[in-house]
Amino acid sequence: MRALRFHSKGDIRLDDVEQPKCAPHEVRLKVAYCGVCGTDIHEYLDGPILIPADGEQNPNTGAKLPLILGHEFSGVVVEVGKDVKSVPLGQRVVVNPAMDDRHHSQSPCEICVRGRHNICLRSTFYGLQAPQGGFADEICVDAIACFPLPSSVSLKLAALVEPLAVAAHMIRISGFTPGQDVVIFGAGPIGSALVFLLRQYGAGKILVSEIAPSRSAQAMECGADKVIDPVTTAAQPAVSELIGPAGADIAFDACGLQTTLDAAFACTKPGGTIFNVAIHEKPLSLNLNLLTLSEKRLLAGNAYTAEDYNRVIEVLRSKGPEVEKFITAIVPLEQAVDGAFEELVRNKAMHNKILVEVNGEDCDSLRTAHSPASKL
Ligand SMILES: [Zn+2]
């Protein structure tokens, strides 16, 4: 089968590899679409970062280079492992790529026992630290990683569930409640997902700070009340004008710069929350008196859990068409390196999400071929 594999920094190739075997607790998926994540681009430009280093093997999954990338994918079940009862043949699914002790057949660590599987002591991801990933014709995944899609959610749209689930998780653990006023720094894929979901969840005022005009326009379409360009407009006076002099209840930083962290503190009211969503390239400096003297809270989040996946799928059931605009290009697997990876290196600000079409809508014909009705 075809598989897009990371060999080394700057070297991702479409290889011909053996089909994976389906273990008793797994299902085999024909992959429909797989989104390209900022994480994939970081690996391409500077990796291996999260993926195993050359000559090393992930202790939980045995993954080593060359490694199949892709962790934002949807597909159709074409084989069911003998112990699987929860996922039927022909089911259209989206995959939660976050793996924990359950996927590794380990007894649960104390973090997993508390239900916080996203920060398991042995946390790994399909498409980054596992032998298999979503940029391939087929993948065998643990049945518990599969979430069935409602009929109103297309396989294409389903590839957006993962980045939306990141945003849903951050909102959930930030302590957000309906009616609260929010500031968001950065309207890239996660920032725009935050705007969209916060609007769905009943946010009060939403102010976004974003440099790129295309992303500013998208933030407005997603439900922002105002978008400012930080080059020409300071965030704090804008928050004061839109929300009030005390500031916002929560400031989400989806940029990860010293300037956005400082602005997030300046824009948050006493007792409010600064929530870091970004992955930082270097340590930033922070005056902790800013927390102490006004009892602000600094929080951060990682990935998502099943609860976040379920919440996003529920939103997409009715609001799916509104996020189709997040898909700014769809390229076939054969053109993924130049059409998706290189395109995002060249023109990042012009895109929200580029999808790689692996088997695309052909998966739906498979579903018909496998559905019980077609056998009658
Ligand atoms: Zn664990």
TrEMBL record:
Domain of life: Eukaryota
Cofactor(s) recorded in Swiss-Prot or TrEMBL: Zn(2+)
GO CC terms: cytoplasm
Listed GO MF terms: (R,R)-butanediol dehydrogenase activity; zinc ion binding
GO BP annotations, alphabetical order: butanediol biosynthetic process
Residues of the Enoyl reductase (ER) domain: 10-356
Keywords in alphabetical order: Metal-binding, Oxidoreductase, Zinc
Pfam families: ADH_N (PF08240), ADH_zinc_N (PF00107)
SUPFAM superfamilies (alphabetical): GroES-like, NAD(P)-binding Rossmann-fold domains
Family in the record: Belongs to the zinc-containing alcohol dehydrogenase family.
Protein name as annotated: Enoyl reductase (ER) domain-containing protein
